[in-house]
Write a structure and sequence with these properties.
By secondary structure, this protein is α+β, with helices and mostly antiparallel strands. 54% of the residues lie in helices and 19% in strands. The protein contains four helices and six strands. The chain has helices at 2-20, 24-34, 111-159, 176-208, and strands at residues 40-47, 52-58, 64-67, 83-86, 89-96, 103-110. It has a six-stranded antiparallel beta sheet. A hairpin with a 2-residue loop joins strand 4 (83-86) and strand 5 (89-96). Helix 3 runs parallel beside helix 4. The protein starts with a helix and ends with a helix.
Length: 209
């Protein structure tokens, strides 16, 4: 509703000078331009005697028509009634030139179009959200698979440390936790190897003695 009110204020400001000089062709050009906005079905300019000067209308096929019929259109006296919703049609009245109006701008908007647009935006948001969730799930699943593979290899290596003293794990992982784990296992393997080598050397010296 705020956007429609803002639009009505802009139209009122644009047509004021042409209303004073009665340049209806210039007013017609402004109304034809503004009515192209979605959901707007009619924009009218009413004089200070409450007679329609000009109105631009748009049908369901986006076809624009202009009328100059001098029909009577009385704007609401109560300021709170200048924006009224009735049968899915939102009507806004905007005075031209403030408290002592030289005329009025009347804009009608089909709220069904706005609801459809809101639903379309909501549906797109939900769809994008679901796709992002699925993508994140796939990425997480792949990451977990990689991490589990590294853990399984590391666990198997740890089980065989006593049989594979001095051997090392050659796994490159981007996370610091897994890198430290691999480095610790390799360090433990090397330590066991060194201890075994020292033990063999002592045994050899003992035998020679």
């Amino acid at each position: 509703r705020g956007n429609l009110q803002f639009m009505a204020e802009g139209v009122a400001s644009s047509v004021r000078i042409f209303l004073l000089t009665e340049e209806l062709t210039s007013i017609e050009s402004i109304l034809k331009r503004e009515i192209k906005f979605p959901a707007i079905t009619q924009i009218a300019v009413v004089d200070n005697a409450n007679h329609l000067l000009i109105a631009a209308s748009k049908d369901h096929h986006e076809k624009i028509s202009v009328q100059y019929h001098k029909e009577y259109r009385k704007p609401p006296a109560d300021e709170s009634m200048r924006m009224v919703l009735h049968d899915d049609l939102l009507t806004v009245w905007q005075p031209i030139n403030g408290s002592l109006p030289e005329g009025w701008v009347q804009i009608e908007s089909d709220v069904r179009f706005i609801r459809k647009l809101q639903f379309s935006i909501w549906l797109q948001t939900v769809t994008v959200g679901m796709l992002l969730f699925l993508l994140a799930t796939l990425i997480l699943n792949q990451v977990l698979k990689t991490r589990l593979r590294v853990l399984n290899i590391a666990a198997d290596f740890a089980k065989r440390l006593c049989d594979r003293r001095g051997a090392s794990l050659d796994i490159h992982d981007s996370t610091s936790e897994f890198t430290r784990l691999i480095q610790s296992l390799n360090h433990a393997s090397q330590m066991l190897y060194e201890q075994q080598r020292e033990l063999f050397e002592k045994e050899e010296r003992y035998e020679l003695a």
